[in-house]
Amino acid sequence: MYVRRVELTDFRSYERVAVDLDPGVSVLVGQNGMGKTNLVEALGYVATLDSHRVATDAPLVRAGAASAVVRCAIVHDGRELLVELEIVPGKANRARLNRSPVRRPREVLGALRMVLFAPEDLELVRGDPAARRRYLDDLLVARQPRFAGVRSDYDRVIKQRNALLRTAYLTRKVGGTRGQDLSTLMVWDQHLAHHGAELLAGRLELVAALGPHLTKAYDAVAAGRAAAAIGYASGLGDSLVPDRPALEQLLLDALQERRAAEIERGVTLVGPHRDDLTLALGDLPAKGYASHGESWSFALALRLAAYDLLRSDGIEPVLVLDDVFAELDAGRRDRLAALVSDAGQLLVTCAVPEDVPPALRGARFDVTLGSVTHD
C-alpha cells in the first residue's frame, strides 16, 4: 500500500496544494511552522478520521474558510482508490469513495492503513490513560475496520448513560424521585455491557498480539538496555480473557455493584473507557521511572510494534516519522533507520536534511509556507 497523491484545499496552512508521491522513502524538509506536519496530519486524518494533534476539527480548516477538503489516491495490490473528505466544523463531515458519496465517513476507514510517529507520542508513556486507550483503539480499527462501529456505538452509550446519571444526580440534589431514571438506566446497562464486552475483548486480543512485537522493537531501538512489556489494566480485575459473553456478564455485575456510587457522582464508573494500557521497563512502570531517552524509545517502540503487527497480518501500512530524528542520539538514529529501511512507503519530516540518516535520504520535497515542491 502507498499514497500516490494527496491534495489539500483549505486544510491548515494550505489554501491549495497537491503532492505526488512514490513508494520508498520521501523526505519533507522545511523550517518549523512551514506545514510539514500539516501534510502528514491530513494523511493521518484519512487513515483514522481524527487528528493526532487536536481534539476537534475546527483547527484543521484554514482561517477564513468554511470547510477543508482532503483527497488521497491510494494504491493497494495494483488497484487505486480515491478517498475524499470534506471537513465542516460544527456540521457532519462528508466522504466520497471513488467519487461516490458514502453514508457515513467511517466507511472509508481501512482504505489507508498508516502508522504515524510524532513528538506528541511521548504522551503515550508520560501522559494520561486516554492517550494509551486511543493508541489501542486506533490500532484495533487499523487491523479490523469494523471496530470503528463498535467504538462509535460504545461512545454513544456512554454519552447517553452519563446524561441519565447526571439527571438522577440532580434530581437527588433537589429531593425528587429517581425511579424512572433508574428504570431507563438499566436499559443502557445492557447496551454498555454488550458493546463494552466487544471492545474489551478486541483490546485484550490486541495486547496479547502486540506484546512480542513491542518487546522486540524496544530491544532493537534501545540496544538491549532493558526489557519492555505491556499489559492491560481493567477495573473488572486481572487475568481477563477475551470471552465476550463472560466479559458482558462481568460488566453487568460491576454496573450493579457501582450503581449507588455512579448516582452519587453522576457519571459512569464502569467500562473500558476507564481502563489503561500498562507499560513496563524491567520490573518498573515506564511512567514515572523511564528517563527522557527511555520514554522516547518506548513511544517509538509502540509505533514500530503496531507497524510490525499490521505487516504480520498481511497489511503493508504507510509509515510516517514526523520530526523524529532530531530527538534521537546518533546510535538510536542509525538503529531506527535500519529497522524501517525496507518500508513499502516511508514519509520522513525534518527541519534540516542532516537530521536524517544517509540510508533514508530518498526523494526530497521542500516545504515552504503554503507550498510543497519536489527537489
Q: Could you list the spans in which at least 5 consecutive residues all have pLDDT below 50?
A: none
What's the alpha carbon Rg, rounded to whole Å? 22 Å
Give the helix level as a range of percent.
40-55%
CATH class of the domain at 1-113 and 316-375: Alpha Beta
Gross morphology is: globular
Q: Which band does the percent of strand residues land in?
A: 15-25%
User: Could you give the order of strands across the largest sheet?
Assistant: 2-1-4-5-6-7
Distance between the termini: 24 Å
Query: What is the CATH topology of the domain at 1-113 and 316-375?
Result: Rossmann fold
CATH architecture of the domain at 1-113 and 316-375: 3-Layer(aba) Sandwich
Count of helical regions: 9
Structure summary, number of beta strands: 15
Overall average residue pLDDT: 92
Helix/strand-derived class? alpha/beta
Order of helices and strands: EEEHEEEEEHHHHEHHEEHEHEEE
Give short descriptive properties of this protein.
42% helix; Rossmann fold; single chain; 9 helices; alpha/beta; six-stranded mixed β-sheet
Describe, in plain words, how this protein is organized in 3D.
The chain is α/β, with parallel strands linked by helices and 375 residues long. The chain has a domain at 1-113 and 316-375: P-loop containing nucleotide triphosphate hydrolases (Rossmann fold), CATH 3.40.50.300. The protein has helices spanning 36-48, 123-126, 129-143, 147-173, 179-222, 244-257, 259-265, 292-312, 330-340; strands spanning 2-11, 14-20, 24-29, 68-76, 79-87, 94-97, 100-101, 114-117, 228-233, 276-281, 284-285, 318-322, 345-350, 363-368, 371-374. The two termini are 24 Å apart. The model has no long low-confidence stretch (mean pLDDT 92).
